[in-house]
Amino acid sequence: MSVRRAITALTAAGVAVATIGGATSATAGERHHPGGPVAFDRVATYPVFQNRPAGEDPATPTVAEISAVSPDGRTLIHTDALARRIGFLDISRADLPRGLGTLSLAQLGNAEDEPTSVAVVGKYVLVVVNTSSSYTEPSGRLDVIELASRQRVASFDLGGQPDSIAISKNQRYAAIAIENERDEEATPPGGEEGDLPQAPAGFVQIVDLTGASPADWRLRPVPLTGAGGQALPALVQAGLAAPTDPEPEYVTINSRDQLAVTLQENNGVALIDLPTGRITRVFSAGTATISGIDTVKDGTINLTGSISDVPREPDAVAWIDDRYLATANEGDWRGGTRGWSVFDSSTGRVAWDAGNSFERLAVTYGLHNEDRAAKKGTEPEGVAIAEYDGVRYAFVGSERSNFVAVYDLGNPAKPVFKQVLPATNGPEGLLPIPSRGLLAVSSEEDDASVGVRASVSLYQLGKGSPAFPSIVSGTDRAGAPIGWGALGALSAAPGERDQLYSVTDAAYSQTRILTIDAKRTPAVITGALPVKDATGTPVGYDAEGIFARPQGGFWLAVEGAKGPENKLVRLDAAGITRQTVPLPTDVAAGLAKQGLEGVTATTDRQGREIVWVAVQRELSTDPTGVVRLGRYDVAADTWSWFGYQMGSTTVPGDWMGLSEITVVGDRLAVIERDKLNGPAATVKRIYTVPLPGGAAAPGPLRVLPKTLAVDVLPALRATNGWTQEKLEGLTAAGNGQVYAITDNDAVQDATGETVLLRLGSTREVFGPN
């Protein structure tokens, strides 16, 4: 099969998809037609560092935090607090966003001025800017920028440190939360470090957007404390923790010009009538007791933990209609309930709460961040509400697990979960653009050293099956989702058409073998087998390769932090270690921290079992660019070695390596890849080499000739997301199909997205022989 045909077949096969009602794919940028099942599908991911000013180092941190859009839905504006600027993107083609440059706030004020939020009113961009010199002397301004010329046409002193801004539906009012945030290292009298109250108190600024020009706009502050800083009775009666320091965070306005503002650290919500500036209600967000979640950072996804009477401490808030409010309960210093809630604004009571369901979505979709288990878990930070073709949706973003959950709000008090949208790290701003059937998600985490870059992702609503997820977990006997992540290996299940195995690596403290049903779309993890040592005690191997033996049990390729720790491990069908095979001393001595990466095996008609392993990088004693493929004769207990010539890379700090090995007919198929991700990713390929008929001859390594089977990069990019670095698993199943999978690194220094690729039949991928 030609390379071009292989790429065509691969791209056509695409990624396994999940459906909402099972529809067919829609063209990016095309509005869907009512009357059929629909879903949001990601159509583009734009790394905002690509929109940097000329001459700026591409590794310079730059973020996308809060975004707004022009009235025609074609120009997106986002804040970049790290770089002290706002960025502009042309999203006329949703599948091909284009950078339109940036506007520096340093040129409009001080080099340390930070934009905290942005909104659009007609032809003007409203940017709220934090200009504070200290926590005790907070300040800020509102800059009004003409979108077409990018010239500032007005500026207003806000009288404090701003956070968020909202615009009324009739564009009559703007409201700004003046947070005057607390100093987490300050200790108030009688309190603890970071405690409240800390003066000066925050408040709300109302901007009357009337007059011939922005210069005519007027500000009306709404104090949330009394004269002299005393507590207002409404805040005291609501039971807020520190009513003299309200800490307003996020604002939203309904169609009746009623403002809701979260008082995050005080675990409360205040309602304000914008025409009069009168506070109409203040209520506590209350507490929640949640069970069936992971609350211990121990390298194990254990959904038996609980939290009791924890304050919700909502961050973002959005009106569902003129009565109900949705809050994202991120938490701050005392709370965070790992979900979101719906409040009845007429009573201040909880009408619905996500309980453990939001946290369990992260587990089901392989996005559980074990590093945050003991803290605030998924940390739902953003929430947005919008109506698309008569259907009202809620979008809730997880800051720590990098996803946005979508719900149908046909009944505001009974949200119905619809789908999960994968995002890059730290999704912060959720921007519905219903006029174009789009959702924009801006993500703020940026660390070029590990390939984590801030981005704006675009999702299109249409008839069709979204590309994500390609694999999810089923439930265990207790009804909880099976925890999973870091799937860096694949093996076919002997005698089964559609069953695969994978294994977790050192990202988790206990190794588990996962059973995958690949017949379903998306594929489903149906079981987890704990791996144990010879005494039957659960063990944590850095298992980078797995092979299910026709004789029963498994071989694992175990990588070590040091050369001698690399080994082959044979398990029985119950997952108990029955044999450990060390590498030869000279080979182990030549390994650095990148060692065994893949394992496969053959058994001849006489029952002679030969195990093959792939070493990720060259030994210190071998020629540059030549890595080893190992042949282990089980009966003879002997090793011999062959060479594999890797490609080269010219990117500083990059390196090439092997990630997997599997037998396909009379050949060995291997994954060769670079260490790059996102737009920098270049090499994600599958090659084959002849399967040697016997042991290697003594002397220099015999380098086996390699043949390109398929370039997997087009299929990885076809997901329209952040191109994953670690293409690490490969196998040919009993159904004749070839599968590959990416390792999500357990959401550490990675987006956390796992891509299971269905590459086509073995004949299509590897040819007729």
Q: Key features?
A:
6 helices, 50 strands, five-stranded mixed beta sheet, Mesenchyme-surface_protein, Phytase-like_dom, mainly beta, 2 domains, four-stranded antiparallel beta sheet, Methylamine Dehydrogenase, Chain H, Tachylectin-2, Chain A, 769 residues
The name of the CATH architecture of the largest domain is 7 Propeller
Report the major sheet.
5 strands, mixed
CATH topology of the largest domain, anyone?
Methylamine Dehydrogenase, Chain H
Number of helices: 6
Spatial arrangement of strands, main beta sheet: 31-35-34-33-32
| Gross geometry | elongated
Q: In terms of structural class, how would the helical and strand content be classed? A: mainly beta
Mean of residue pLDDT? 94
Number of strands: 50
Q: What ranges have pLDDT less than 50 throughout 5 or more consecutive residues?
A: 1-34
Instruction: Give the count of structural domains.
Output: 2
CATH level 1 class label of the largest domain: Mainly Beta
Using the CA coordinates, give the radius of gyration.
Answer: 28 Å
CATH superfamily of the largest domain: YVTN repeat-like/Quinoprotein amine dehydrogenase
| Strand residue percentage | 35-45%
Secondary structure: helix percent: under 10%
Note the gap between the termini.
10 Å
Pfam families: choice_anch_I, Phytase-like
Organism: Micromonospora cremea
InterPro entries: Choice_anch_I (IPR055188), Mesenchyme-surface_protein (IPR052956), Phytase-like_dom (IPR027372), Quino_amine_DH_bsu (IPR011044), WD40/YVTN_repeat-like_dom_sf (IPR015943)
Protein name: Esterase-like activity of phytase
